[in-house]
Amino acid sequence: MFAFAGPGLLTGEGGGGSVRGYLLHRVKPHLPPWLAVGATGVAGALGHWRWADSAAAGVGLTLSSVILTGATWWAGRATSQQRRLHSAITVAAGSAWLTAACLAGPMTGPLDDLFLMGGPVVALSWNVRMVLRRNDADPQGGGADKGLLEKVGLARAQIGQAKVEPNRVTAPLSLEPGEQTNDDVSKALARIASALDLPVSAVRYLPSPDSSRRGELVIVPEDMLAQSAEYEGPSNLGGSIAEPLVIGRYDDGSPLSLWLPGDPKAKRNSTHLLIAGGTGSGKGETALNLQTEILSRRDVLLWVSDPKAFQDFAPLRPGMDWTAEGGADTEVMVEAVKAVIPARTRWLGAHGYRQWLPEAAEQQTSREHTCRPDGRPCGCPGMPFLVAWFEEAANTLRNLGDDAFTGIAQEARSAGVSLVVSLQRPSYDQMSTSTRASLPSVIALGCDPRDEGFSLPEAVIDAGAHPGAWGNRRPGYCYVVSPGIPEDRYPSPGRTFAFPARATALMEQLAAWALREGATADPVTASAVTAVAGRAYTGRTVPTPAPAAGTRPRLTAVQGDDDMSNEQGHGLLVDPEDAGIDPEADLPDAEQGDDTPIFGQETGRKPGPKEARELFARALEEFEQAGQMIVGPKDFMDWCDRNNLSRPWVSARLKEAAENGRLEATNATGRWRIVPVLAAA
């Protein structure tokens, strides 16, 4: 065993070669300058032997020296000024000595001493330069590095003094004037990430808004998002919706926040939000993060439509002001949001608000915000902010058309209403370009690489944001573009908080808090939505307290005639629909058509025109009382069978009711919105 250890130690084996080979490998990069000095001395001796007495050779050698020096200076324009000057001085000195040695002799006068002293100095200067270059090869170390940029095709660019922060390096970059632009850096980001052995999302470029050839190269070497952070509760329970909503963290550990209302002092506009991401990208947990933050604020109403029957949001549903499970209910919610916008805008304008502010949610006791002509405080109830959330919006857009949200998106911000649209693929065949252009904020989660342009602005993608690199492999990873967030943060990836099973109890407690302490609809908003939705809108409903332990529920007797109630007061002993029948009255006489067969019955009677219209009006009232405010011929199929009426007759009555103001047409063909009785009157 020891016999093999000795030679290995002496020769340096075990590292793949001998000591001699290792030293030769380390010395080889430094040999070219010394070889060039030696070759210059040999060339001087041979030239003197050949051209010692030739005047023509002297002219030729002098011209060659000048041309070679000029060519070196010209070729060095692609490098730094230091390298260019060093190269030109080296070539000029060497060619001048060679010319003198060829004509006068290398041993004549001081030429031999100049060679013996100047040659090693020139060679060592290049060795020193190479050593310094290798020491600065790390792009995080400062502005002297050029090797990385040369590898990625940006050799002419200049890196300034880098700013080193925890897990973040920012280096100013200046490109060659007239030959390179910021677009060249954006195209090279993937190669830079490859050279640094980092994911493409860890390298981004922030171009200067004042220059097309200057910007900042940002490198985040460690992915701090690999370990997900779990939801621990709202960030600001009882605060205002105007304060930041914290939904996760960035890759450098800083909070991931956004705002929905505007702030004139901060020069921030109110915004609408698009949440986009493929299947499995974490849209559900992202929505939970945002909804829990919204419900934890004291001055906001949350309306949510979810065709998935609130599969993800069930623990939060009691705290929401209004919910809809898709279909006709969602159609009503869309129409209601459209109706509340002008009513809320009118109220805000009358009270001196150019946009919604937290003061608008309080009772109006200020002279600055009063609707009274004499300027005295009006004391009007405040108006909470409103968030209208449409989950799985592709379903709604298919039913209502691709421009269902266009009017809301274009007009709602000034009314203190924020629209949130969540869907997998916000392509232009699902959502109109007008709607997409009116959604200034986006949370872009992992998606198909071909869909990146549907979610993020082109400038953010050019800066290094690529949600397509994640797909559904990193749930919760996202880019957030929204007013109030610094633009240099747009291409920085973040990750939303995770909601494990144990977070359900926290969500239930938060919903209970919102039910007790959350805002309720102001009279203006409630009136406007009720005029459209009728009984479909109930607002937050406080549950009835449970009876005390040991007591039995008490049934209250229904008021009525004594002979219609029993002695114990247990209510009517007849069906409610038969309560108005006089048992002593004679039965009505037979009418024409009583024996006409009806589907499902042996005999039946077709109602006359007047009676049929009364039945139709009663049917509309029943739909309204049940909260179904969107109807069409298909909703009357069973009713037609019971009353022996045809579907075309119902279609005609629907159009007639629309002409009388009882119905209003919707975006969907053949669908009508019931106008509540009071609103119609």
Write a concise synopsis of the structure shown.
This is Sporulation protein SsgA. Helices cover 38% and strands 13% of the residues.
Structure description:
With 681 residues, this protein is α+β, with helices and mostly antiparallel strands. It has four domains: 17-135; 147-219, Gyrase A, domain 2; 246-536, P-loop containing nucleotide triphosphate hydrolases (Rossmann fold, 3-Layer(aba) Sandwich), CATH 3.40.50.300; 595-680, Arc Repressor Mutant, subunit A. It is built from 21 helices and 20 strands. The strands form four sheets. A ten-stranded mixed β-sheet has the order 7-6-15-14-13-8-12-11-9-10. Strands 1, 2, 3, 4 and 5 form a five-stranded antiparallel β-sheet that branches. Helix 4 (55-75) packs antiparallel against helix 5 and helix 5 (81-104) packs antiparallel against helix 6 (111-135). The longest helix is centred in the N-terminal third of the chain and has 25 residues, at 111-135.
